[in-house]
C-alpha cells in the first residue's frame, strides 16, 4: 500500500508540475510583474490619472485634473490654460488618439482637438447634452462622439449622425460593429439603423464602462459587473461587489476590471486574480488602463498617479515562498527538487516556488551553506560552509563526517571527476578525497593561488578557477592557461555552451569563451554594462549572464556578429538602479546558479531569483529621438526654422519616448556647419548655442541606452540663420582694405615710439626687480603658513598623519629618556557608513567634527589626537599611566553625547602601549599593528567596546614576526599577549601595575 501511495503521489505531483508550467507559457501571475509608479514628485501636475493614450511618436498622454500631460518615460509636460485658453477647464476626463494623428481632449464642459501642437475648439453648444459622454474611432476611420446624441467629427466640427439615437451613455465595438448603451439598452448598428439587442440592463443602473470580451458584452455599473448572455444580462460575481471604476481589455484573452476595492483580472473568459487595494500600495483606486505598442500595461490611479506593470523574467522568491532567511548562497538539486543554501541553513523545494527548511542532525558550526553537492553514487550530501565541510547521509540528513583539516576554512565547491575522485575547492587551497582520506594537493599548498573558486571537468581536462588565474589538470599535471589575462584573473565561474565551447567567468574582465584556437572576451570594452560573472547559462537562443551588477541575456547570434545585442533583466549597474526591485547576485563558487527546465535560479541577498526563459526577449530597438522644440531668444520657433540675424541664443529640446530603464538613456548631438565632433548630453535633453554667424546648419541628435554600443538613427532639424550686414561678402572686402591701411600706419607709428619705449622699459625693469624682491619675502611667509596647514585635517582641525610622521621620532626619543611607554589608542566610529547612507554625507561630516571635539576636550595635555583617515582616529599619549580610565571616560562621554543626527553614536577602540625600552625587533609599527588587531577583534565581536593587547616579550626576535603571522582571533589565546578588556577586574589590576611600572605586564 505504501508503494502504491508513493506512485500515486508522484504521478499527481508530476501532473501538477506539468500543468503549472504549461499554463506558465500562456498565463503569468501578477507576482511576475514589476510595478513602477510615477507621482507628483516625479513631475505629474496632479495625482489622479483618468485616461491614457499613446500617439504615433510613442508619447503617452494622460488626462488629469490639472490639464493634459505628455510623458516620454522621463519627463512630464503639462498642457493647460497657460498654453491655450481652450483648456480653461483643467479637469480632463477622456482622451482619444485617432489615426489622423489628432487627439480629442474631453473635459467636463469642453471638447478640444490637438494636432501638431495646435489646439482647436470643437463647438458643443449645438449638441443635445453640451458635454461629451464617450468617444470612439470606427474601423473605417470615422470618429464618433456621444454628447446626448451621436455626432461625427468632420473638418474639426461635429455633425449630427443617426438622429433616432439619444441619451447615449457609452460606445463600444462588438464584432467590428458600433454599439451604444442608451437608457440601459444595448443597440448595435446593422446596415443603416440601430437595432436593440436583448433585454434592458437592470433599472436604475448607471453604466460607466462597456467593452467586448471573449465574444460577449461586459458593462460596468455602480452596482457591479454585468455580461450579456443570449438576451439576458447577468451579474458577474466578484469577491466583493461594488461600483466599477474602470474596465479594459489587455488582449482578446485578458480583461481588467477595477472596482472601489480591488483590481480584478479575467483570463480566457474566467476570473483568475484579484489585487486588493491597500493603504501602503500605489496600486489603489485604478481609474484607467492602457496597453501600449510594446504590450506594456499602464494604469491610472485616482490616488497614486501613473503606474506600469511590467512582465519581468525575474521573479523573487522570498518570505512568501517559505524562506525565513532571505540571504541565499547556493543552489543544487536532489531528486529533481531544488536545494537552497542560505545564510542560516538548508531549504528544500516542497512544491513549485515553495520551500521549507531542512533539519540537519547535527547542524554545522557555521550555518552559511556556501556550496553543496549531492553524490549520487553513495547518496551523501556535501555541505561547504563559510567555516568548514560537512558530509551527511541523504535523505536522512544525519552526519557522516566532518573534516578537521578544513575547520574554519571557507569551502567554495565540491565535485567528482570522471574517475570518482572528489575534489574540494577552498579558500586555503585544493583538496582530494579518495578512499575515505582527505589530502591537500601539494601544488596549491601555502595558498599560493589564494582562494580556489571553481572546478569544472570538460572531457579529460579538469579546469580549476582560482583568485589568481585559470589552471588545467590534464594527465596528472597542473598548468596555467596560455591566455595572459585569464592566467592572472580572479576566476568566478566555469561552464560550457550547448556546442561544447568552454565559458570562463571572471570578477573583473567579463566572460571568456574558448574557441578552437583562441579565447574571445565579452566585457565592458565590447559595449556590455557588466564586467563580472558569477553564473552563465546557454538557454539556446540567449546566453544568460549573472553577476554582482545584475542579470542580462545576450542574443547568441550576436556573439559572433557584433554589435552585441543584450537586455538587462536585473540592473544593479547604477544606470537605473533607482527603479530596480531585485538585488543579484552574490558569491563566487560552485552552485551560484542552476538551470532547470525553462527556468534558471540565482542566489540573491533578498531570496531566490527565478528567471523564466519563456519571458526572455531580444532587446527592443530604440526609436529615433524627437526634436521637440526650438527656441531662439527664449521664443518658440516653429518649423521650418528660419532665423533673423538678431536671434542669437538657441535652445533645442529633444527626447526619445522610452519607458524601460529611461534613466539609463544618453544622447549625443552635433550642429553640422559649426560642431566638428559629437557633443554628449550629460543627463540633459537639450542643446544650447549662441552667437553663431549667418548660414545654413543641420542639427542632428542620436540616443542609446547607457552602456549599449549602438546609437539610434539621427533626428535632424535644418536651421537657416540670416547674416548681419557685417557678415556679407562686400563687408569682408572693405574690412581687408581697412586693415591693410591700419597695418601701414601702425608700422610707422611703431618706428617712432621704439626709442621712447626702450627708456620706459628700463625703468619698468628696475621697478619690477624691487617688486619681485618684496614678492619673494611674502612668498616665504606664505610657505610657512602652508606648512602649518599641511599638518592639520581640513574637516576636523585635528592633526593628520603627516604631523604624526614628523612628531613620532621625537616622541619615541622622549619616551625612552623618560622611561614612560607611549600609549596608542585607535578609535573607529561604528556603522559610520549607515549614517552617511541614511542622513547624507553632510551629517556624516558633522558627526566626525563632533567626535573630534570630544576627543580633544577629554584628552590630556600631553596627548596627541590625530585623524587617521575616514571615521578612524588615533590618540597617542605620552602618559600611559591611567590609560584605561582615559578610554572609559571617552566611551562614557561618546555614549551620552548629543549628536547632529539625533541618534546615538557608538565607537570601538584598540589599545596598545609601545615599550620605552624596545629594541630593533619591536618598532612603533608593531605597536600600531597590535592596536589595530585589537580594534578588529572588537569589531568582529560586536563593536561598542575596547580591547587592550600588549606583547609580554617585545624584545624577543620572534615577537614581531609572530604578530604578523598570527590570526587576530588567536591573539586572545596567545600566552605571549596580555589581554585587557573593558570593565573587568583584570583591568583594575592592570591599571595599578601601569601606575607603578609604566607598562602593562
Automatic annotation (TrEMBL):
Residues 820-951 form the GGDEF domain. It catalyses: 2 GTP = 3',3'-c-di-GMP + 2 diphosphate. PROSITE patterns: GGDEF (PS50887). The keyword Flavoprotein does not apply. Its EC number is 2.7.7.65. It comes from the Bacteria. Keywords: Coiled coil, Membrane, Nucleotidyltransferase, Transferase, Transmembrane, Transmembrane helix. It is an enzyme of class 2 (transferase). SUPFAM superfamilies: Calcium-dependent phosphotriesterase (SSF63829), Nucleotide cyclase (SSF55073). Pfam families: GGDEF, Y_Y_Y. The chain crosses the membrane at residues 729-749. Residues 758-792 form a coiled coil. GO terms for molecular function: diguanylate cyclase activity. The keyword Methyltransferase does not apply. CDD domains: GGDEF. This is diguanylate cyclase. It comes from Pseudoalteromonas fenneropenaei.
